[in-house]
Design a protein that fits this description.
Layout (H helix, E strand, L loop, with lengths): L4 H5 L2 H5 L2 E5 L10 E4 L13 E5 L8 H14 L3 E5 L10 H10 L3 E4 L5 H36 L3 H12 L3 E5 L4 E5 L5 H5 L2 H6 L7 E4 L4 E8 L2 E9 L11 E2 L2 E2 L5 H19 L7 H15 L4 H10 L8 E9 L14 H4 L3 H19 L3 E6 L4 E8 L5 H19 L15 E5 L9 H14 L17 H7 L4 H20 L6 H9 L4 H7 L4 H15 L6 H18 L2
Parallel strand pairs: 2-3, 3-4, 4-5
Antiparallel strand pairs: 1-5, 6-7, 6-10, 8-9, 9-10, 11-12, 13-15, 13-16, 14-15
Helix pairs in contact: 3-4, 5-6, 5-9, 6-9, 10-11, 13-14, 15-16, 16-21, 17-21, 18-19, 18-20, 19-20
């Protein structure tokens, strides 16, 4: 926010004095924090750095040694420059020894060859400083106001990132802990160039601190999270990085360092993103809101179980002394356009399509319960799924009730939606998954059944079987890891196990070792079979395995170590697969 020596020399009061730079042109981009008038040789002890010193020279030492010491003291304390008015002490110019000393230290030394009131210079520079500070303050105030409004409105990640890019005028990317892009805005640049090879590029960005600037890559990075749980990073590419010479300064900060305003911006944007993740909004009818409140209370332990039972009974749903089964119904595809081989759909085009699609599914689930003559609580449990807690008279009725519910739901959805042509092998855009948790004997255990059903539904998205109901035995390890892919602890496990190897592959695109490790583990640690699967000679394959062991600091002959690495690979695949 401070003007540089170069900018000060361009001011009218300074130009009136016919300035001439005699030494230290390398320091012209130094910031001027303040202007100080001095006529004593030991002024350096009273300065704090960043000052532009004005003097007539009448109090300066007469000998060469004293002049060198004077210049050295000013440079040591970090002043921005020295301006000497000619005519009182020095007539034709400053002493050569003084100019030579300033040149050696890179300290700008300027002669004013015409008498100029110093007060006009100080007024002009200080006005420039104050104006720059006010501009920075206004920009900061706008940032706080803009993101406060976004927080109050419950804006989604895409809108927060878009606003951040608009305010900064720079590309902004939001990623999770596994370097997968969650939202981005290229700020008018090419999105393809911005995101090409993003994971490898992101792994090279290693800032020192929670919010820091990585000068090598030109990205300003801050961690995103709340309540001690970090779940992503927000990155802003500042175009000034890497364009200035090392060691110079600009605007009151080291060269190549983003303005303070941008640091404030990314931190406020990260706070808004973290807060938005904690807020859930839904516009539903009063009865459905109560159903959702009660289901959420069971999932989050936000209300006593007895209170949930009482309020449910008031709605005509008896949960006490019943066999309870948690059910979750969700679409296989979050975006209907994913299953239509490039065809545009109304759901994909309308911003209201997602909530409307979820409401339609919730209505169908409720109607299916009524047609199957079942009672229970039902409502949307998140942005993609509808949950139901079935209250059955006894365990023997569980399978019959679930079969009747699934059949009723399928019939209702077929009657409500006309058939759409789909590409062979593509997932129908309307396909849904019905998942059921284990039945429990009381309301205090209902949460376990609901969570199990939600996890099964998420994991079943990777299963292409068209089962009427998915239960726990249908979910394998890959499915389990898929449903846990957004869990920061799983992402942290992957980074701990494979981070060094992924970083190596990012630095050496032509020497990808992850595939070698995958072949070795998928062939049951049979090196010969793995070498054949990788299309490598055995000596070459063995050498790559040795390098992998060194990079990861692990014994690849250890069954336990390889099991851990194999699980990490499966988790990495789950994270990378939407």
């Amino acid at each position: 926010m401070f003007p540089t020596v170069r900018e000060v020399l361009a001011l009218d009061p300074v130009r009136h004095g016919a300035p001439r730079l005699v030494a230290g042109d390398a320091g012209l981009d130094a910031p001027v924090r303040w202007v100080h008038v001095a006529e004593v040789p030991d002024i350096a002890t009273l300065l704090g750095g960043g000052e532009l010193v004005l003097t007539t020279g009448i109090g300066l030492p007469a000998d060469d040694t004293g002049l060198r010491a004077f210049i050295g003291d000013l440079a040591d304390v970090g002043v921005s420059g020295l301006v000497v008015e000619l005519g009182r002490r020095y007539v034709s110019g400053v002493p050569r020894v003084m100019a030579a000393a300033a040149e050696r230290r890179g300290l700008p030394l300027v002669e004013l060859r015409r008498a100029t009131p110093f007060v006009r210079i100080t007024e002009a520079v200080h006005a420039l400083i104050v104006d720059a500070q006010l501009t920075e303050l206004r920009a900061t105030e706008e940032i706080h106001q803009r993101f406060t409004e976004l927080s109050v409105e419950g804006a989604g990640p895409a809108e927060v990132v878009r606003q951040a890019a608009e305010l900064a005028g720079c590309p902004v990317v939001l990623e999770n802990l596994s370097r997968q892009v969650l939202a981005y805005d290229p700020a008018g640049e090419s999105a393809e160039l911005l995101l090409d090879g993003w994971e490898q590029h992101s792994r090279r960005i290693r800032p020192a601190g929670r919010t820091a600037y990585d000068a090598d890559s030109g990205w300003l990075v801050t961690t995103v999270g709340a309540r001690g749980q970090d779940w992503g990073r927000l990155l802003l590419r500042w175009p000034g990085g890497g364009d200035l010479a090392a060691g110079t300064t600009l605007g009151g900060r080291p060269a190549g360092t983003p303005p303070t305003r941008l640091t404030i911006l990314v931190e406020r944007a990260a706070s808004t993103l973290a807060l938005g993740r904690l807020i859930r909004r839904d516009a539903e009818g009063l009865e459905r809101q109560i159903h959702r409140t009660l289901l959420t209370a069971l999932l989050d332990h936000s209300r006593p179980v007895d209170e949930v039972a009482l309020r449910a009974r008031a709605l005509g749903v008896t949960l006490e002394r019943r066999h309870l089964v948690g059910v979750v119904v969700r679409h296989r595809l979050d975006d209907p356009a994913e299953g239509t081989a490039g065809e545009s759909t109304v759901a994909a085009e309308s911003p209201e399509a997602g909530p409307a699609r979820l409401r339609d599914l919730a209505e169908a689930v409720g109607q299916a319960l009524r047609e199957a003559k079942l009672t229970g609580l039902t409502s949307a449990v998140d942005d993609q799924a509808v949950g139901a807690l079935l209250a059955l008279p006894d365990p023997a009725a569980e399978e019959r009730a679930l079969t009747a519910f699934a059949a009723a739901l399928r019939r209702i959805r077929l009657d409500a939606a006309p058939a759409r042509p789909t590409v062979a092998g593509a997932v129908p855009p309307d396909a849904v998954i019905v998942a059921a948790g284990s039945g429990v004997g009381g309301l205090r255990e209902a949460r376990r059944s609901l969570i199990e059903a939600r996890q099964i539904a998420d994991a079943a998205r990777r299963d292409r079987r068209d089962l009427p109901i998915f239960r726990l035995p249908h979910v394998g390890l890959a499915g389990l890891l898929h449903l846990l892919r957004d869990e920061p602890r799983v992402q942290t496990f992957v980074e701990r196990e494979l981070g060094a190897l992924l970083a190596h592959d990012a630095r050496h695109p032509r020497d990808q070792l992850l595939g070698t490790l995958r072949a070795y583990l998928e062939q049951g640690r049979n090196k010969s079979a793995a070498a054949a699967a990788a299309h490598l000679s055995r000596p070459a394959f063995y050498e790559r395995l040795a390098r992998i062991a060194r990079i990861l600091d692990v014994d690849l002959d250890s069954v336990e170590a390889c099991l851990s690495l194999h699980v990490a690979l499966l988790a990495l695949d789950a994270i990378r697969t939407p």
